[in-house]
Design brief:
It is built from three helices and four strands; from the N terminus they run E-E-E-E-H-H-H. The chain is of the alpha+beta class. A four-stranded antiparallel β-sheet has the order 1-2-3-4, with helices on one face.
Length: 112
């Protein structure tokens, strides 16, 4: 099951509240908190698109980048055994552990 929406390069996570009998969404990958809701999937999608359009308009008016800036570095936590195996594989391939992880991520993104 995929609990995400995509529109114009923006992604949103979606959850269902059984208590409120409503779908909630949150735009991901931005520096602001933008949420939306709907009582049906079609209404939720409509509200997501409206939220994106409104957010893009506000960003353009304020000269603010819409999407969050990423540095290109982050911490990855894995089991020690996986860390050891990855480090050994990188050594055998003559590349850094960082390069091995980057290649693995690129491969996963190509398959998506």
């Amino acid at each position: 099951m995929n609990n995400t929406l995509k529109y114009k390069g923006f992604y949103a996570s979606v959850v269902f509240s059984d208590e409120d009998n409503i779908l909630f969404g949150k735009i991901e990958g931005i520096d602001d908190l933008i949420m939306f809701e709907g009582s049906s999937v079609s209404e939720l999608k409509k509200m997501f698109k409206e939220a994106v359009e409104d957010y893009v308009e506000i960003c353009e008016q304020t000269n603010k980048p819409c999407l969050k800036s990423f540095k290109g570095s982050f911490n990855v936590r894995v089991k020690p055994d996986i860390h050891r195996k990855a480090a050994m594989l990188a050594t055998m391939k003559g590349i850094s552990l960082n390069q091995l992880v980057q290649k693995a991520i690129e491969k996963e993104l190509e398959a998506a």
